[in-house]
Design brief:
alpha/beta; five-stranded mixed β-sheet; six-stranded mixed β-sheet; elongated; 17% strand; 13 helices
């Protein structure tokens, strides 16, 4: 069974938000006490937190699917649902989070560093929160928003002070075993070490330091040969690179200087630049007589390159104590020279001033609406409730989606897709106004001749002949009010049917309306005189005045 895992694929799912509640307060003598449905709870987040007690990603290897708690639904009597529990996943220091397409998301370094991998969904609002002055008792509630679901690749880059590199069977694992209390697997065949081994070393009065035994490297390791490509990333975090050279090898074409050049070439070919890391050379296996002679021969050449040299024997422990003290002193100096680690700052990315709330783009014979707000509203809408669908249409209209659809040439009945929902667009009153104005601006051209300034005629996107004239200033309840299809004063000659007037304040026709005077209302009620809606004033009949009748009748 594997005991060290440094790369896993994590399937994280945040908690779903709880549904809102649709409820009406009832008690004795108060059968309709108003809406009292509570809101749903927020879904839990999935967080990654660095823990010094964790050294491997083994837990995620056996349990790759992790899900946070979901929020509870709301209840009546204004009782809100409980929030879902956050799921905190402990990861080792030096864990890198990568997206499936290879983009680095975050690099987790330092104990306590936390990153929110998946955000929980929002809880739906109950009908008590949806009530307003115009919607006294909503008969619907919002659904909870689903939590984020994503796949992330977790890679562990060991955080060690010293990295031991070299060819297979150079004695790296044996050196770790004599420097520390670690007990890695040791055998007399290549590639005995399949996973990095970490050991904690204490030398003299110096602070303890960690040593990482990286699996053996061979020529072409930077291109994927052997195990080099999998474990070269563990050297990135190390402060000091130690070359362990085998002075007793019997393979042809190998000697300490050649091995050093090959390993340095592989480190230089790796994606990360490691040229700034200090080096130290360890000539191993000097307990063999021929190896001791070879170590003496190559020491001068290594010193000429500016590399500190230590000749050791892991079998007889010769030179191990001096090497341990030298490494401890180098690590202490590197730690003192390293800049102090500052507390990670919270980066705020405010929304741009000119960033739109939504986007509309044509696709095929329909349109696709994007943006965080429309997508969230669609996810939280209960499409089995007609009132909820109407509320969604009102929100989209207030956001300006209908005007943008009209501007891009959409007509009623065209397919509009928002998220996973596709529907046939039926514009509201404001949407029809936008269609009419867009058609008037788009096809009403000409110099205008006679009457009320009627211009040239156009198609108007299938809505008939367009005659742009000033809008009427009187709106009659229950009548056309001079809107399209009115015949006498409309801007279109019978192109579309009369549009029923909505509640006060929801239609643009009320913006320029004038309330008739008492004399005008009396004249209209009695049918006396010629009350004309064209100019917003009574038009006196022949031989009479604004009050109707002839002068003789008034006498």
């Amino acid at each position: 069974m594997a005991t060290f895992v440094d790369r896993v694929v994590l399937h994280a799912a945040a908690g779903d938000g709880g549904h809102g509640c649709c409820s009406i307060h009832r008690e004795k003598f108060k059968p309709l006490g108003g809406p009292d449905g509570g809101n749903g709870g927020r879904g839990g987040d999935v967080l990654l937190r660095v823990d010094n007690g964790v050294t491997t990603l083994l837990d995620f290897h056996f349990h790759p699917h992790q899900k946070a708690g979901s929020g509870r639904p709301g209840q009546g009597s204004n009782r809100h649902g409980a929030d879902g529990d956050d799921l905190v996943l402990a990861v080792p220091d030096g864990t890198v989070v990568i997206s499936p397409d290879g983009e680095e998301i975050v690099d987790l370094i330092g104990p306590g560093t936390t990153y929110v991998l998946a955000h929980g969904g929002r809880g739906g609002r109950g009908n008590a929160s949806l009530a307003s002055t115009r919607r006294k008792a909503p008969g619907f509630a919002e659904l909870g928003e689903p939590g984020e679901q994503l796949d992330a690749v977790l890679e562990l880059k060991s955080v060690a002070d010293v990295a031991l590199v070299g060819f297979p069977s150079a004695g790296k694992s044996s050196l770790v075993s004599v420097l520390s209390a670690a007990r890695p697997k040791i055998a007399d065949y290549p590639f005995t070490t399949l996973v990095p081994n970490l050991g904690v070393v204490r030398a003299g009065d110096h602070p303890p330091y960690t040593v990482a035994d990286v699996p053996g490297l061979i020529p072409g390791a930077s291109q994927g040969r052997g195990l080099g490509l999998e474990f070269l990333r563990h050297i990135e975090r190390c402060s000091l690179i130690v070359h362990v050279l085998d002075c007793a090898t019997l393979e042809p074409g190998r000697d300490p200087l050649t091995d050093l050049d090959v390993i340095e070439a592989e480190l230089a070919a790796y994606t990360t630049d490691l040229s700034d890391r200090p080096r130290l050379v360890v000539l191993n296996k000097i307990d063999v007589p021929d190896a001791a002679e070879l170590a003496e021969l190559v020491t001068a050449d290594l010193l000429a390159r500016g590399l500190p040299v230590h000749a050791v024997s892991t079998a007889s422990h010769q030179g191990v104590r001096a090497l341990s003290l030298a490494l401890a002193e180098l690590v202490a100096n590197l730690r003192a020279a390293a800049p102090s680690r500052s507390v990670p700052r919270v980066v705020l990315r405010p929304r741009a001033v000119n960033e739109p709330d939504f986007t509309v783009r044509p696709e095929g014979e329909g349109f696709v609406v994007g943006g965080p707000k429309p997508l969230r509203w669609v996810r939280q809408t209960d499409f089995a409730n007609e009132e909820a669908i109407g509320y969604l249409a009102d929100r989209l209209a207030r956001l300006g989606v209908e005007k943008e659809l009209a501007r891009q040439g959409a007509v009623p009945g065209v397919e509009v897709t928002i998220g996973a929902v596709t529907f046939d667009w039926e514009p509201t009153l404001s949407g029809r106004d936008a269609l009419i104005l867009e058609a008037a601006h788009g096809s009403g051209s000409g110099n205008g001749s006679g009457g009320n300034g009627a211009g040239g005629e156009g198609d108007g996107d299938g809505y008939g002949v367009v005659r742009p004239v000033p809008l009427p200033t009187v709106a009659t309840v229950g009548g056309s009010g001079g809107m399209p299809g009115a015949g006498r004063s409309g801007i279109r000659a019978g192109a579309v049917a009369d549009i029923p007037m909505g509640p006060r304040g929801t239609d643009q026709r009320f913006r320029t309306s004038r309330r008739p005077t008492r004399a005008e209302r009396a004249a209209r009620r009695d049918g006396v005189g010629g009350f004309d809606e064209f100019d917003g004033h009574d038009e006196p009949a022949a031989g009479g005045d604004a009050t109707g009748g002839s002068p003789g009748e008034r006498g």
